[in-house]
Amino acid sequence: MSGVRNEARDGVRGGALPGRRTLLRAGPAVLLGAAGCAGRQAGPAAPARPGASGTAPALPRPPVWRPGPGEVHPEVKSRAVELVRAIGAWPAGERDAAMARVGALGLAPSLVDRAGALRPGGTEAVLEVVTAQYGGILADAASVLVVCRQWVRRADGTVLPGGTTVDVRLRRARPRWTATALHPAAPGAPAAAPGEAARRVLAAGPGIELPPAAAADVRSGAVHTSVLEALLELARGHRLAVSVLRSGHPLTVFGTDRPSDHPRGRAVDVWRIDGHPVVDPATPRGLVESFMRRAAAAGSYNIGGPYLLPGGAPGQFFSDATHRDHVHLGFRS
Predict the structure, then answer these.
(1) Which of 116, 125, 136, 192 shows the smallest number of beta carbons within 10 Å?
(2) Would 111 be classed as within a structural domain?
(3) How would you class 140 by CB atoms within 10 Å of its CB: exposed for 0-12, middle for 13-18, buried for 19 or more?
């Protein structure tokens, strides 16, 4: 991003879209999932192996993600999630039927060819959508960041946990929005010696919840120290759930040609604070506003969320339809 207004214009050109969004996790377990996630903050998890009796380990039964009544254009997020689920989860022996599943949704089967880490090898997979967040929402186009955890059964019966974040691009169409592209996260390789702030963030446990792609970003050393130190400072007073750090986010502020701070490792999005989703209308407004002001005190120059706060440096706080479901924190260095 260049300047304090880069993220502030994300998704504004389509006009302000009213309402907040509610994220609900409910419903029965499913074997059709979305892209997965593995490994906790400390590193990738080892595969679950058959027990002494030779019985194969059971796959998890993740909850189903559904948009709530507070969402901005919930049908757009639902469309992105069902595409990711169709590709990233499959019953035993049906991995290669991904194109047929995508075609049955009325979407281009060729999207499967761009699935990347969303489609690992394996005989069976389940997927949990951690959250579906806007990377941008305009009148006729959208970016939905589908943050996932995934569990894959390999041919030897072991279960390998993993996950990714997928930037699903969509455009308005009739009768439903249609997907036009997939951009799965591609975190860098782990750094030989992560810095102190990175190690502390990875070891923060439930205080800083990192989905797989974000944890991989931290391990890669590509996230700027200013972001990591701000997360540590904010975690002193809150439990944070991160959605996106670097990989899996659009390269430019959606709808513009201006670089985003995220791919440069200088931004973080937080979708849940102290167990309360930012998008949920029941989440106390004071909690979100207090967090945004604490982020400013921690060094963020560009803070977007569901509320436009007064005060701060010129342009420091902003709000638009894209940021109804998360708090964005940008850093200059």
Answers:
(1) 192
(2) yes
(3) exposed
